[in-house]
Structure prediction request, 168 residues.
Amino acid sequence: MAMLERTKRVLRPVLRPVIAAGIAVGVLWLAFNLVNNLVNLDAVGVSELDAIHLALLVALLGVAGFWGAWQTGRARMGALAGGFAALLGAAIGIVTLFIITFLFIDTIRQNTFMIEDFQRSGMQSMDAFIVADALGRAFFGGILSLLLGATLGAIGGLIGVWVRRLRS
Prediction:
């Protein structure tokens, strides 16, 4: 029981920033999913969208880790803060990806690159291809988010502990 109370006391200062960072990551995934699915980008546009998305993920998850370590003085809390923010953001991103996919499947069917990918795939149904594509993006996007969250949270956490020690 004492350990549970201690854990609650340690987690309380980072709970709000973790939730805020997780929601921000989720909104970022939502924006990415909307643009990626509804805008007919060329290869350069897709590259730029991916680069912007990755840079913002790095910033948000690093800040979550920094804040977690800054509040608690523990680098481990930075890694946990980044990981939990990424987990919440990925959950929001995956749910919104499937909502967008099913709401706008008619628009997605008209995407030039989706049509080209479908033709190369050899699949019989465009709708099945679109759903399979969404499943793949949800799986790999979720894994990317979690790996980035833990890694960048740890880096942010180390920086947060270091800055906290410098200020003391």
